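Q: Convert this sequence to structure tokens.
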Amino acid sequence: MMRRGVVGLLVMFAGAEPVVAAEVWQSTTGWCSPIQSGNNNVVNCNGVDPRAMDRLNERLDRMELDLKQKITVADDWARRYNELNAELEETKKQLAAKGEDATLVQAAQDLLHEGKLDEARAIFDRLIQSDKANVDRAAQDFFGRASVFALQFRLDEALPDYAEAYQYRPNDQRFATAYAYALQQQKDYPKAESVLQELLRQRRSLAAQNPAAYRPDLAGTLNNLGVLYDETRRFADAEAAYKEAAGIRRELAAQNPAAYRPDLAQTLNNLGALYDATHRFAEAEAAYREAAGIGRELAAQNPAAYRPDLARTLNNLGILYDETDRFAEGEAAKREAAGIERALAAQNPAAYRPDLARTLNNLGALYDDTHRFAEAEAAYKEAAGIYRELAAQNPAAYRPDLTRTLNNLGILYDETRRFAEAEAAYREAAGIYRELAAQNPAAYRRDLATTLNLLGILYDDTHRFAEAEAAYREAAGIRRELAAQNPAAYRPDLATTLNNLGALYWQTQRFAEAEAAFKETAGIGRELAAQNPAAYRPGLATTLNNLGVLYHDTHRFADAEAALKEAADIRRALAAQNPAAYRPNLATTLTNLASLYRDMHRDSDAQAVEAEAMAAAK
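A:
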């Protein structure tokens, strides 16, 4: 019997960590920035009273965030603080114009400035009781109390008050925007969409009457809707919203570049991330390149403000080039990003070393993909060294990043047959993930399963089959539970481990168990490929090839032929679209099919398939 193509182990683990441009809500100029204070970094936010700022920094320190996460949280907090402060200022003016007493409102504002939020909320409790008969005042009071709850990071308690304010005054765009944002943060997407759609209708009407005043707000709402659709995987709707927002922002930026080009770059980054996620790589490249062009010009005028954003866009562009096998361009983009981040980290290590480590990790992945293993190892080891130092200071924030880099190092060592070092890296990563998953299962069990899957592959490669089976089975158990809760997100991961487990059983002559694993994998693969052919047909073809080889080995020739022919049909279609990527796989399946025909004494069929296999292999 002729030897057939080896069983392919699917390792769906992306070495690169895409630093996807933050799909944020309406862009701000960035309220907050890091400030060096002794050996530490604190956050400072424009427009926030220093007393309130001190209390916020104390709270951020207790949250165990890295500096970038702190700035993101602080930006959101400062935006709410300034909105509430402006609302209180406006309310005081209204009361003064009517000759009414503003003592309570002034007291609430003073307490806000001092950061005494419990006391400020108590004043809003009193205002709500006294203003029930006045619709406008009641709406402002509920909005004020909701804002205080949000500033205390108690968004679940803020939502009912945001809802009250919105119900009192649904045409007040400030209330609608805040309510929709809070709903989306709490993952209540249907309600958030409903509020945003009504807000969009209002802003379209206003922009038709007064374009100069209202088109910026219209673009912001469209961008926010795009984010919502993106998060709920309604990609066509997200694209339409982002494209309309980008069109408006291009026109605004043509009239006033300084004011609107940063917003345009933000929407282009979101659009690029959407196209990348849906494998529309040419369109993703165009969006990222335009965003990078804007970022270069902005950074030339104001390096401190815009070089970090430029580095993130370059990183995204580099990852895109990796995905499309344009490695020289990917390397150039990532090296430029790393150069920017090294310079930034030299000025402010606490703020920018995490970004540098992430780019080094991504650069290591590129070198790994192009078999420049020494450079890959150097990049990964530098990234891991940075993450170890950061994790020593802030374990909760940086241990997850360290484990991702350890996994990538493990993959590199496995590929270069440095198995002891690979095992050490994987085992350290798995140990950290076990601790993290014990504290936060929802956040880290998926990562633990990924590392166990990689450890299983290593043990498989080194013929430690019992340990490989234990690792795969634990990974599959986790992934089954996750897939039961969220099939769309986790069934691909489950299919990966099942395919690897099937391959292990095949190698150890446990054919019934191998068949069960491969058949379950193929079942999942068919459903996934029906929903997203571009993403999942290659994996389905691999599993069908494996199943065909298994059936051949167990003399179930009719089943083997059916599986191999289906795999070959899929791979022919893939090779027609991308010959360089898929013709070798097609040649493997055709060789397996020819071997089957030889064993079935169908020599003429075997000759025809062998000829096609030779042509595909050229």
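The longest strand covers residues 32-37.
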